[in-house]
Amino acid sequence: MRLHRNLVLAVIDGLFNIFNNGEYASKEVEKLLKRDKRWGARDRAFIAETVYDIVRWRRLYAHIAEAGNHFDRPNLWKMFAVWAVLRGYQLPTGWKQIQSTPERRIKGKFDEAKKDRRIGQSIPDWLDELGVSELGEKKWTEEITALNQQAEVVLRANTLKTSRALLQKQLREEGIESFPLKKYTNALQLKERANVFTTEAFKNGLFEVQDASSQLVAEFLQVQPGMRVVDACAGAGGKSLHLAALMENKGQIIAMDIYANKLKELKRRAKRNGAHNIEPRHIDSTKVIKKLHEKADRVLIDAPCSGLGVLKRNPDAKWKLESSFIDNIKKTQQEILQQYSKMVKPGGKMVYATCSILPSENQEQVNEFLASEFGKDFTFVKDRKILASKSGYDGFYMALLKKK
Ligand SMILES: C[S@@+](CC[C@H](N)C(=O)[O-])C[C@H]1O[C@@H](n2cnc3c(N)ncnc32)[C@H](O)[C@@H]1O
């Protein structure tokens, strides 16, 4: 395998911005891929996967490269060289930035580093302590190991326009092989990573990219066509679109968020999906919620969270998250539960969900809510704690509550 200099330069630039300028890996990769129109699919895949890999294993590679916590260009080149050696690439002899790479010592240092979970699994000390205190040593080790694997690409067939079997056939005609996931009604997993966004099937709204665990949330809410459903933290609408499909476009989905720009994106996606019953509503004051008190058959709270269940796809969160952010987001989660639950009609149902694996963001929030003044009107029906290590997909939590 040969390394191409201009691709590696792009990787180094991307890493520099992610580690030093607070850029998100996803945004940075998107930007890098626009740099040279002549790059083909393989070049693009190299850039995207290498950037994500080095972000994911930052602490481990920095340790082996003796780069400390300092991500200037010389150190990023050293970390890149570690990545390349561990991946079995032949290091080019003429590249001065990596000329002094101690190739033979890298493998030994790698084996040694694997013995310390914080370095071997590449996580900050505080996050490791948190994981152990919340899940226990064994579960946390299994979980962080799973969360450090690259995410599979999973699609949700949009049943407003197609079926899973038809979608699989159409994708095959476009050169993309996939297979259905048995335990997930509408999920197709790609056999090999591919850019599905350029397919006709995508442009025609036949599917959305959505992790398998995430596809369980809308189903958990037990919606029926004709209901009034509030998706209270709708963001760009991943779950709203699924709800629209489950409701066969009948009834009303009020999709809310405190960020108007996310709802704009939701509108665009709804159009592509042929979802006509979604009404975006910007939460710009508490009145928006008050107006809907006791008006909804179903309320979905897909709460803002630490995102620790989705590290597979957002590995940079390991370096951007702070424990104070997690403390604050937990307060927001409880406030949202307290306030937004008031929108549920007597006899109606509510789902509280997160893409976190921490009990303190999940079942403990639900228990606190149920014990509170507003929560005593609700009964606990069931919950699901999805671990990445058990499911093979994202870590998620969902609880179904019923209003008396
Ligand atoms: C986990 S994300 C939602 C993802 C989305 N439901 C989907 O399936 O694509 C949580 C969302 O909650 C929003 N949010 C944060 N604080 C909120 C609040 N107080 N009220 C409503 N939404 C809020 C965030 O902007 C974010 O879009």
Automatic annotation (TrEMBL):
Record flagged with keyword Magnesium: no
Keyword annotations: Methyltransferase, RNA-binding, S-adenosyl-L-methionine, Transferase
GO terms assigned for molecular function: methyltransferase activity
Pfam families, sorted: Methyltr_RsmB-F (PF01189), RsmF-B_ferredox (PF22458)
Enzyme class: transferase
GO biological process, one term: methylation
Occurrences of domain SAM-dependent MTase RsmB/NOP-type (ranges): 143-404
Source superkingdom: Bacteria
EC number, UniProt record: 2.1.1.-
Ligand binding (S-adenosyl-L-methionine): D257, D284, D302
Active site positions, chain numbering: C355
Secretion signal span: none
UniProt similarity note: Belongs to the class I-like SAM-binding methyltransferase superfamily. RsmB/NOP family.
Protein known as: RsmB/NOP family class I SAM-dependent RNA methyltransferase
Species of the source: Sungkyunkwania multivorans
